[in-house]
Structures are given as structure tokens and as C-alpha cells.
Amino acid sequence: MTKFNAAQAAKLLDIRDVSVSLNARGKPAPSVLEGISLAVGKGEIVGVVGESGCGKSVLSLSVLGLLPGALRLSGGEIEYAGVHRLDRMGQDELRRYRGKEAAMIFQDPMSSLNPGLTIGAQLTEMIRLHLGYGRKEASEWAGQLLHKVGLPRPASLLREYPHRLSGGMRQRVMIAMAMSCNPGLLIADEPTTALDVTIQAQILEMMRGIREENGTSIMLISHDLGVIADMSDRIAVMYAGQIVEEGDARDIFDRPAHPYTIGLLNAIPSPAKKREKLFAIPGTVPALEERGRGCRFAPRCPHAEERCRAEAPPLVRVRHEHRARCFLAEEKGATAHEPIRSGAVG
Ligand SMILES: Nc1ncnc2c1ncn2[C@@H]1O[C@H](COP(=O)(O)OP(=O)(O)OP(=O)(O)O)[C@@H](O)[C@H]1O
């Protein structure tokens, strides 16, 4: 894990008590995200982890002011660099903020690359728009960016169309595009999920290099705690639209306090576990209408008691900067739970 002193870092992104709801005209709408508070320091890598449907992508789209029409920010505030309030920005200001201050890389580069334009045309358009460079300067910078992300023969690559590149190369192009204006914040939503393991490791290593070289803050989103593990300084675990545990990456790994986190940790495949059945947390993430009034994880939790089904646990501090949303963690501290391997399913 990387050395990063969160206490010394100034906040670059500050998400305060943010809720996102379905846009149901006039009617009370269920919350997709509820009371999310999360900060990302300058140069810090924060991992956001949770199964599919927990709200990770909705959170990243909120940070970019890119929520789809069906959803709206219904509470809280998002502040960038201590001055910009996302919830108060107009469309023009938002456009300038995206790309220049905060950039995103997605799981599938083809969804963001235009198949009808060369790599060079797409990269230089972005550079000219945000940095105001002339054609020649922009083209030179584009070549340098491709070189920086480890792509060979940048000059000829600039003339290629996206479909001629491998998945790993396309992801590198996406990252070059995201880095073209040297943004302070990079949001990477499942950046390596579609890639094979060796390429995955190379891309993650490259992102770490970007942080070292440019001091870029990174919000790294994945359903796989294994991917987040080596990269993150801090980790937020999301479940059914809430943060259920948050803390220093070391604490999350060495002393997980929430049974959901323990389940995710047990589900990481490793060479040592090769002969064992791969663990999966039984059950699925509840849909919006299935959430009860108690703890949202209670139906899948091996430790759930009557109280967990009746009351929603608050997010409480278990130690220092380590927080968890669990009654048992609250009562006993972060050593409340034994790993839940015994409930393993194939
Ligand atoms: N465009 C939308 N309209 C309505 N509801 C949405 C929309 N996008 C997301 N949601 C709701 O938000 C929930 C969280 O979705 P989100 O995509 O953020 O999850 P995720 O954790 O990123 O999962 P995945 O890894 O599959 O992308 C969904 O289960 C769904 O209920």
C-alpha cells in the first residue's frame, strides 16, 4: 500500500451528506444514495468498493455533475478545491470543470471514444478546447501524452481509429485523454474490469505513476476489493446506497469492522485459496423498494440480531478515522466480527 499522509493533505473533493433521488414529480422519491460523506485529499487515492447496484457509479456521476435526467441531487453538497460548489454550477461552468479540473475514465473506452474519429483528432480536440493550444502544439502534446501512458509509436497511433487498438491500448488512450488537461481529480470507474489480469496490473501501475508524477487525486471505483487493495490510501465500502465502512486502507484490511467488508475480503481470490471454493456473500443487494427500515445488510448478515432488522445503524467511529455502520462494531469496536467463511457458497 502506498504511503500517503491523509492528515497532512488538503481536501480537494469534499462530498458532504449527499443524497440522490429518483426524479418523481411531486411524489416522495426513494433515495439511490443516502447521506454520503467522503473527502479526497490532494494527491490521495480513495477506493470506493461495493457490489453491482450499490451506487458507486451514481456517486461518480454526481461528482462530475453528470447525473442522468431520471436522478437528482436531493440533499447535501459537493465542493471542489474549497471554492467550487458542484450543486451551484451552471452548465458552462460544469463543462469547464469537467476535463480541466476533474476527468473520468470508464470501464468501456469504446463508449467514450468516437469510433469515427482518429485518436489524434479526439485528443487534440480536447486539448484545444480546454487548453486553447494551436493545432501543432496540441498535436505535439497529444503525442507526448500517448508516450506517457506507455503507448509505442505515438506519431502513427495518432492517425489510427479506436477499433484498430486492443482493449488495453484503448484504455491507455482514454487515460491519456483524461490526463490531457492535467486535472486535479481523476475518477476511474472500473477502469480495468474488461482487461485481462496482466494488463490490469499495468494500467493500475500507470495510474499510480500519474499520482506520483502529477500529484493527481484519484477516486478508484471497483466491485473488486482486490483491485482497490494495493492502490488506495483510503477505502469507502458502499452498500445499497450508503457508506457502510470507511477508513485507512490498512485498517480496512487488517481490522474490518462491518460484516459486508469482511464478506468482500473473503471473496478476494488468492493463490493460497486456490483449492478452496471461491467465497461469495449469500443473497443479493436489495432493490430500492426492498430496503427495510433496519440495517440494509441485515438479510445477508450472519451476525444480524432483532435490533438490526428493526433499526438503522448510524455510521459510528470505531477508531481514529475508521467508521462503520454496524451496531456490533459500535458496541465492541472493530474486532466485533470473526470472518464469515463458514457461510461460504460456491
Ligand atoms: N438512470 C437511472 N435511472 C434510475 N435509477 C438509476 C439510474 N442509474 C442508477 N440507478 C439506480 O441506482 C442504483 C445504483 O446504481 P449504480 O450504477 O450507481 O451502481 P454501481 O454500484 O455503480 O453498480 P455497477 O457496478 O453495476 O455499475 C441502481 O440499482 C438503480 O436503482
Automatic annotation (TrEMBL):
<dbReference type="Pfam" id="PF00005">
    <property type="entry name" value="ABC_tran"/>
</dbReference>
<dbReference type="InterPro" id="IPR013563">
    <property type="entry name" value="Oligopep_ABC_C"/>
</dbReference>
<keyword id="KW-0547">Nucleotide-binding</keyword>
<feature type="domain" description="ABC transporter">
    <location>
        <begin position="13"/>
        <end position="265"/>
    </location>
</feature>
<dbReference type="InterPro" id="IPR003593">
    <property type="entry name" value="AAA+_ATPase"/>
</dbReference>
<comment type="similarity">
    <text>Belongs to the ABC transporter superfamily.</text>
</comment>
<keyword id="KW-1003">Cell membrane</keyword>
<keyword id="KW-0472">Membrane</keyword>
<dbReference type="GO" id="GO:0005524">
    <property type="term" value="F:ATP binding"/>
</dbReference>
<keyword id="KW-1278">Translocase</keyword>
<dbReference type="InterPro" id="IPR027417">
    <property type="entry name" value="P-loop_NTPase"/>
</dbReference>
<dbReference type="InterPro" id="IPR003439">
    <property type="entry name" value="ABC_transporter-like_ATP-bd"/>
</dbReference>
<dbReference type="InterPro" id="IPR017871">
    <property type="entry name" value="ABC_transporter-like_CS"/>
</dbReference>
<keyword id="KW-0813">Transport</keyword>
<dbReference type="Pfam" id="PF08352">
    <property type="entry name" value="oligo_HPY"/>
</dbReference>
<dbReference type="InterPro" id="IPR050388">
    <property type="entry name" value="ABC_Ni/Peptide_Import"/>
</dbReference>
<protein>
    <submittedName>
        <fullName>ABC transporter ATP-binding protein</fullName>
    </submittedName>
</protein>
<keyword id="KW-0997">Cell inner membrane</keyword>
<keyword id="KW-0067">ATP-binding</keyword>
